[in-house]
Amino acid sequence: MTTSLSTPAWAVVRVLRDRNAGLYLVGVVVSGFGTSALWLASGVWVKDLTGSNGLAALCLLAMWTPTLAGPLLGTLADRVRRKPLLIGTNLLLAALLLTLFTVDSPGRLWLLYAVLFVYGAVGVVEDAAESALVATAVDRSLLGDFNGLRMTATEGMKLVAPLAGAGLYAACGGPGVALLDSVTFVLAAGVCTLLRVREDRTAPPTTGWWERTAEGTRFLWAHTRLRPLVLAGGATMLCAGLSGSLLYAVVDGLGHAPAYAGVLYAVQGAGSVVLGLTSGTGLRLLGGRRFAAFGIALTACAVAGRAVQSDAVALACSAASGIGLPCVLIAAMTAVQRETPTALLGRTAATANTLMFTPNVIGLAVGAALVELVDYRLLLTALGTALLGTAAALVQSRASASRTTDRSPSDANPA
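Structure (tokenized):
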């Protein structure tokens, strides 16, 4: 019997058969392992040196802050050829991480924060360059499957790497984890050199940096198919951040120790791995907006369901959240890669990432304040309702876009 081309297993095989896609996924696994290990170890490192929870939390802030400058940093990815840029940035981070060997006292922590800030800024540039490079290096028909597998690889590393990083930190300290991350970036640079992609030389700029940055933002905002997806992604991540800040209240309501949050995180990660393996098929069957709306609606049910004080329900909601939450992110990024001209793709992808992921940080901060003032069950119910409204609005925007398409034959293939 012949395997259907739409089955998830065959889709995975098709992606892995593509040489560039397979190599890039290897790079994601390698560098993602080092990044996830450092993410946990840096906070523990600061905590051990200072005893301060607040200073430890600044590590995550230092890595996330450059996301706010995504449109500006993404412009760099459109000014040079992306493959050499990725090789260079990977080697830069590999060298920079070695400076952390000198961090041995609270007085040297400024260097750790500085490295983490640069780490985050380079990550923004790399994400933009990778999105643009993938769009040209990987068969367009495989982009949905590829982005799903990339999600699987990333989430899979989040399940494994923090534990490995914690073990390495216990054995060798912070410098040992920094060395591990440095080696992974060297390996990722080596993988990039093996990619077979033809890139034209970029034309000399005719406008200033700020104007070039604005071009990507204007393109995204004016695009009737991309804008609703990206805005829905931002709204979803805002609610996800608010919900995430309530996790320990949920655990407390279940009568467990705080460490039980790790179990819920692991189940959610496993759900995201499963979703990544099937997302390409889902995108083909439902289309981008309906696939995203389905995921947002499932996330809404999962968030509201956490108000029920039951272990079984909490575990089911974590799995459902892991499956539902990435849908809109995968749909939005795939649409950006397919719909954006190559010359604008770096800026547009970086702008989309900023609009989708910055609200998550805001949600975490706001939720941390609200959880002390309002019953977490009421907040979870309200967030679930807001997410259902977001899903409904996305479906409605799809209907409006379809009506526009009927009037404009040149604007076919709705996302």
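The chain has two domains: 16-202, 204-407. The chain has 16 helices and no strands.
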